[in-house]
Design brief:
The protein is mostly beta strands. Helix content is 10%, strand content 43%. The two termini are 54 Å apart. It binds 2-acetamido-2-deoxy-beta-D-glucopyranose (4 copies). One 2-acetamido-2-deoxy-beta-D-glucopyranose is lined by residues 52-53. Component of the ER membrane protein complex (EMC).
Length: 950
């Protein structure tokens, strides 16, 4: 007994969870650090420091993430979340703006009313400012400097704020972010853009003309004082109906032009800003309707004032290059870039004053100089993508008589791809940043076996036997192949670092992810989460996927319009589709051997009935919880309405796979506390004005088994909850004014037992013969032991690790939005039976309990994401594997992160330090020893017999 106690004490000294070792990073986990789709106006190559030639690729994505990418390998250098607009509807502000200038180590961005400047090399904040009282920033430019002496210092920024009734132009100090001057235009014009030159700032606005259309008005402001100097109004009212008619407004003297087009897209008009003259260009549409006109001009100061106009029709594309004469205020056509029968994406780049235009078509990349039409470089695309390119930025390197070019294009699939001289260098799958649902899938080989086993299950005993023998005989066909591979497998398994390839233990499973832009991705979790395929499954940009349900070999994606798409897991081939029907609120899954999906309407009623047993708990849009028998979708069995003034925000149940290894908890004195193991528990979270309530329901009868209410809760902060086995946990922000109560983020854990008395099974008795439906009496309520902890930061989402048999201790997985990480808190730490205000007794110590401390510091070893910055996570899924020690975790929503968890360490896997060579050598040495010693021993034995005999 004493020895046992000593052993378990010793066991306690071994840390229950060890952090991820450095050599496991990138081995057991993977991370797609995403930005979101790069926007066309705010993406560019830039040399952040004049001391280095290396440029980085900058973008402000549609998710308002500002980031720098290393163009060599596509890795993220830094990123910042700039969606800090205080305006109520910041989405109304549209896409953000990003501006920078070569050699100046700052990038300036604006999103809504928020404007900020960041160090271009390391992404540190230089300054920030909000114009909340005025409105959102409509345009942004960096001011050109008159004196070159100030080169290298931060440039002042000109911002145009759309203040509803008025347009406000501000000059913002490049060092501090303070406003130096502002010019307010209250004439009622529509503020449009700003443009700058060394001495002037131009404010471009649209003045509505008397009858129809708009006149373009350019107001010149003194760049030092902000005083209006003159105004120029262009008679554009016959062509310009609104901001959409204006194709381009240049940012500075590299492109000092305004370009607009008439409604019929027959003529293009160009004005050099500040002059009265308008040049008219007739568009030769070659008989086809022009779909798109884009102007590409250099942004860098002292570039030649050349620009390119790209035209696109349904089937073809071409471009024209123009030169601007600043003195005369005219533009002249220099040359044509020929028409091809495919789409082209143009991009501009600079080298000193020279301007280059890059054309990426579906089959090749060409580079021309703006000065003459000669093609400087032409590369056929090595592996042309089938996806259409939406926009691109490029960088041309002039190597004397040849050029090299790299272009980063955004494809329709959401992939951001860098192509260098026709060769794809890297691809970032930015489309994954809009993941709305995910699931683990089984591959085809597993499908085949599962199918065969199913057949055997349905046959008669004799039939099944014959089938099995046949199957094994068929398997023999692979034997020669297998034997041939065998020596190689043995050798590699001995020699490689990887001790055992765990793929066959279900560690490496495909992950299916559906994104809002109608795509489905498959990630290979065994290969660092690489994208194996991605397909367009729905023609929409707002695909609201409710669930992905996988069957061996296929995955079915269910959308909120009642439609579904079934894909092959191995190839992404679409094998089935159902048409949209009615609006689906959620998808419930009934597990009767196979997973059967049931669509739930807004009002909480199931759309289908299931032939078989099963219960459903649904949440209606108006905040009722309804319980259903799966065979009846007309009348609910029970209805749960929370207390007056409360609103239900979440209903969760125990996971479908939630095995319980032990039905009781063995105490230090060998008595047992029996767990309350009701398989049909549902945890309902409801919030009131400043309270949060947690109800534990029996899903079959609808009885409230337990409830707890927390007062003084800040309901605007995240409230997370989860339930598993015989316990549930939740977290909230306690905002108490009472000094005796804790103020801060709290985590509460509650365990359910049949009885407080050890060795007592309470009124439930044998759980095997327990049915809430047939019992006339309501189910006996559990005995609940709860404890709360103050935690250092909010938790936005909770999940519980799963393993095959539930023997391994569980971890509570918490998503921490403020530190962009995911932690796994070991369940032993969250034991509500930890002794309060005293040291544990010897029996408690034997059980592993230690003194309760109200403050739960997050141990560095609990961080599954270790030092990675895993941002934007709103969902974490868990899955068991064939190894009891190991579970899988995938987190998505913004970034995509996947890892393996081993809450009780890898007790069933050989560690990396295990040397197979040493083992083999030991066995060989023993063998040699035995062969050498055996004759000697035998001789000695014979001698002994002779001696005793004589
Ligand atoms: C930048 O490029 C120039 C010529 O292309 C070269 O002479 C110089 O050494 C480069 N500087 C750095 C810091 O790489
Ligand atoms: C329901 O299942 C029973 C037995 O499995 C079967 O006899 C019956 O035909 C099924 N009904 C429907 C509508 O499928
Ligand atoms: C379950 O309980 C019922 C009555 O409560 C009894 O008739 C039945 O035999 C029990 N079944 C088992 C397997 O113990
Ligand atoms: C950026 O910040 C906003 C506001 O704090 C938040 O809603 C959004 O989820 C964040 N985005 C990412 C990708 O972290």
């Amino acid at each position: 007994m004493r020895l046992q106690a000593a052993l378990s004490l010793l066991a306690l000294c071994v840390p229950s969870t060890l952090a991820i070792y450095a050599d496991e990073v990138n081995h057991i986990d993977f991370h797609h650090a995403l930005l979101g789709l790069p926007s066309s106006q705010s993406t560019f190559f830039l040399k952040p420091s004049s001391a280095s030639n290396a440029s980085l690729l900058y973008t402000l994505s549609e998710k308002s993430i500002l980031g720098a990418i290393n163009p060599r390998d596509g890795s993220l250098v830094w990123r910042q979340n700039v969606s800090r607009s205080l305006l109520p509807d910041s989405a109304a502000a549209g896409g953000g703006l990003l501006r920078a200038s070569d050699g100046i180590n700052a990038v300036v961005s604006a999103t809504g009313d928020y404007i900020s400047s960041w160090n271009a090399l390391d992404g540190k904040l230089i300054w920030e400012n909000w114009f909340t009282s005025e409105g959102s920033v409509a345009d942004l430019e960096l001011l050109e400097l008159e004196d070159a002496s100030a080169a290298g210092t931060f440039r002042d920024t000109i911002a145009l704020v759309n203040a509803g009734e008025a347009g406000v132009v501000k000059r913002i100090d490049g060092q501090t972010g303070d406003v130096k001057w502002e010019y307010k235009d209250e004439s009622g014009d529509v503020p449009f853009q700003v443009s700058s030159s060394p001495t002037e700032v131009f404010y471009i606005s649209l003045q509505s003309a008397l009858l129809k259309g708009s006149k373009i008005k350019a107001t010149s402001l003194d760049s030092v004082t902000g005083k209006q100097t003159y105004q120029q109004t262009l008679n554009s009212e016959n062509d310009v109906t609104g901001p959409d008619s204006i194709v381009f407004v240049g940012a500075n003297t590299a492109a000092p032009i305004i370009v607009w087009v008439d409604k019929a897209r027959k003529v293009l008009k160009v004005n050099v800003i500040g002059t009265k003259q308008v040049s008219t260009i007739n568009i030769d549409n070659k008989g086809e309707e022009i779909k798109n006109i884009k102007v590409h001009a250099p942004k860098k100061l002292n570039s030649l004032p050349h620009f390119l106009v790209g035209y696109e029709t349904e089937s073809s594309s071409w471009a024209e290059v123009y030169h601007t004469d600043m003195k005369l205020g005219t533009v002249t056509k220099a040359y044509d870039i020929p028409r091809v029968q495919e789409r082209s994406v143009f991009a501009t780049s600079n080298k000193d004053a020279n301007v280059y235009f890059t054309r990426n078509t579906e089959s090749e990349t060409t580079v021309v100089s703006s000065a003459s039409h000669g093609v400087l470089g032409r590369w056929a695309l090595k592996n042309p993508s089938t996806e259409q390119a939406l926009h691109a930025v490029s960088e041309v390197v002039d190597k004397g008589d040849t050029v090299a070019v790299r272009s980063a294009s955004l494809l329709a699939s959401g992939d951001w791809q860098l192509i260098r001289n026709g060769q794809a260098e890297w691809t970032r799958h930015e489309g994954l940043s809009r993941a709305s649902a995910a699931a683990w899938a089984e591959t085809d080989e597993q499908e085949e076996l599962a199918h065969q086993l199913e057949v055997e299950g349905h046959e008669s005993l004799h039939g099944a036997y014959v089938h099995r023998v046949k199957r094994h005989i068929k398997d023999l066909e692979y034997l020669p192949e297998w034997l041939k591979e065998l020596p190689k497998r043995i050798l590699t398994s001995i020699l490689t670092d990887e001790v055992s390839n765990l793929d066959s233990f279900g560690i490496s499973k495909p992950i299916i992810i559906a994104t809002e832009n109608g795509r489905v991705f498959a990630l290979d979790s065994g290969n660092h989460g690489a994208v194996s395929w991605s397909v367009k499954a729905a023609e929409t940009d707002a695909w609201n996927v409710k669930a992905i349900i996988t069957q061996p070999g296929t995955a079915t994606v269910y959308a909120d319009d009642g439609s579904s798409v079934t894909l092959k897991v191995s190839s992404g081939e679409i094998v089935g589709r159902t048409a949209p029907s009615s609006k689906v609120h959620s998808i419930a899954v009934i597990n009767n051997g196979a997973s059967i999906p049931v669509s739930i309407r807004e009002n909480g009623t199931p759309m289908e009935t299931i032939n078989g047993s099963g219960f459903l708990v649904t949440l209606s849009a108006d905040g009722k919880v309804l319980g259903w028998s799966a065979q009846d979708n007309k009348t609910p069995v029970w209805e749960f309405i929370p207390a007056r003034g409360q609103k239900i925000i979440r209903a969760t149940s125990r996971p479908t796979h939630d095995p319980v290894a032990s039905i009781g908890k063995v105490l230090g004195d060998r008595s047992v506390l029996y767990k309350y193991l009701n398989p049909n528990l549902a945890l309902i979270t409801a919030v009131g004005d400043n309270s949060a309530s947690f109800y534990l329901l029996d899903a079959v009868s609808g009885t409230v088994l337990h409830s707890s209410i927390q007062e003084n809760v800040d309901t605007s902060q995240p409230i997370a909850s989860t339930i598993s086995e015989n316990w549930f946990a939740y977290s909230f922000f306690g905002d108490s004014t009472d000094a005796s109560e804790a103020k801060g983020h709290q985590l509460v854990i509650s365990e359910l037992y049949e009885s407080f008395i050890p060795n007592d099974r309470g009124p439930l008795n044998s759980a095997t013969n327990y049915s809430t439906l047939h019992d006339v009496d309501a189910p006996a309520p559990p005995h609940v032991i709860a404890q709360s902890f103050v935690i250092p930061e909010p938790i936005s989402h909770m999940a519980v690790t799963q393993t095959r048999q539930g023997i391994t201790t569980r971890q509570l997985l918490c998503t921490l939005p403020s530190s962009n990480s995911i932690i796994g808190i070991p369940r032993q730490i969250l034991d509500p039976r930890r002794p309060v205000n005293r040291d544990p007794s010897s029996t408690e110590a034997e059980e592993g309990l230690f003194k309760y401390n109200p403050f739960l510091e997050f141990d560095g070893r609990w961080f599954l994401t270790h030092s990675r910055d895993v941002a934007g996570i709103n969902n974490v899924l868990v899955k068991d594997t064939l190894l009891e020690s190991t579970g899988l975790v995938i987190a998505f929503g913004g970034d995509v992160y996947g890892t393996r968890v081993m809450p009780s360490q890898a007790f069933d896997v050989l560690g990396k330090g295990f040397s197979k060579i040493q083992l083999v050598l030991t066995v060989v040495a023993l063998g040699i020893g035995v062969t050498v010693l055996a004759p000697i021993v035998r001789k000695k034995q014979i001698n002994t017999i002779w001696k005793t005999g004589s």
